[in-house]
Amino acid sequence: MSETPMKTLQYRFDGPEDGPVLILGPSLGTTWHMWDRQVPELSRRWRVLRYDLPGHGGSPAHPASAIGDLADRLIATLDQLGIDQFGYAGCAIGGAIGADLALRHPHRVASLALISSSPRFGTPDSWRQRGVVIRTNGLDPIARTAPERWFTTSFVTAQPAIVDWAVQMVRTTDPGCYIAACEALAAYDIRSQLGQIGAPTLVLVGADDQVTPPADARVLVAGIPDARLALVPGTSHLTPVEQPSAATDLLVRHFASSGQSSHTTGMTAITAATPKPVLTPAPTPPMAPASPIAEIAPAGQPAHVPTGQPDSRARGIKVRREVLGDAHVDAAEAAVDDFTADFQDFITRYAWGEVWTRPALDRHTRSVVTLTALTARGHLDELALHTRAALRNGLTPAEIKEVLLHTAVYCGVPAANAAFAVAQRVIQEETRPEA
Question: How far is CA 309 from the centre of its chain?
Fold first, then answer.
């Protein structure tokens, strides 16, 4: 175990001190204990390093709002330990960190396993909306719905102790660090870079995963030159927890043969080995044997996604979507005609591409200014829109209330009264926990 400065990550080692290093990266809302069932087998031949994300488990709450920042902290940790090259397996956000390492530090990643991962996780709106809900309601709504996102229904019914353990992992996570990780996932998109990943890669996904479905895994396999797909039947998002024997067997095979490239095509059946007795956390009951697994060889390359230097319009579109949400911007763009096109272009370039991107004020402060101005002028439709934006930019309902109270003093009670009615409606809509 480690003491953890701000620029590094908390970690622990298992396995022989002279063994090759294999790093296991966790999913959002979990701790390194999600890998407990893999460690006894993996640590026989590898020096296994597990780490906790900031604010997860016993890790200090130093938020990181970009995948690259998390990867940099892991690299700083490895540099302190004198570790140059390593194998890496990561689940979900842990997989995103591994892919970032393979892109920016290719000489250090000897082989890679991306579990329940994706080149782009959902939509930016969905992650920022989750942050809005957490700021208002805390992590309990997210914790209560974790089992349905992470596990199949049959597993939830059969393994209540593991489900309770998973819920508690989320509940004990630092909310600020969880929100920062949501921001990191909102901004993450490596679809145009997959062809640059040179490490031999295993892409492992549960057949019933609704969070990062098999279609996302196939995009990874199609884009990464030396990648194979392993599909685990009857399994959802946290495959290493739900089917530990299958996950362990696939990881052992992949990393043991990481020096070999597979160029076969078609499908080859692989039967998971019979589970071996392993040490597990106290509340964790024994698992059922895994079902057969199919490995699919790579097929094709993803469509090219053009890149270029962003101008004020490109910057404006990016910031406008991040602040107002994809749904609003899509609707606005769909409504553009010859009469409104120049005005929409003006807003995108000047308001969003020039003013909102200036570094002297952060988005939180700009939302405060915007709410005040819209209240003072009585622009209630725009106020509703920017109340949603303020929540996405990190303001809490309590902070919005204070802005409107302050505005009442300087802009008039009638204006603030109307603003409170609009803001209250929007806040109730936007902060309602998931059912």
Answer: 26
Helix (H) or strand (E) holding 47: strand 47-52
Model confidence over 153-203: pLDDT tens digits? Answer: 999 999 999 999 999 999 999 999 999 999 999 999 999 999 999 999 999
Report pLDDT for 3. Answer: 56
Helix (H/G/I), strand (E/B), else coil: 333 = helix
Strand 21-25 and strand 10-14: the pairing is: unpaired
CA distance 158 to 285: 10
Global confidence as pTM: 0.78
Burial label for 262, CB within 10 Å (0-12, 13-18, 19+), is: middle
Which residues make Cβ contacts (< 8 Å) with residue 276, sequence separation at least 6? Answer: 40, 41, 245
Tell me the CA distances in angstroms from 369 to 303, 372, 407, one per residue in order.
42, 5, 10
Interatomic CA distance for residues 314 and 246, integer angstroms: 45
The DSSP bridge pattern shows strands 293-296 and 201-206 to be unpaired
CA 222 from chain centre, in angstroms, equals 21
Q: Alpha-carbon distance 117 to 349, whole Å? A: 34
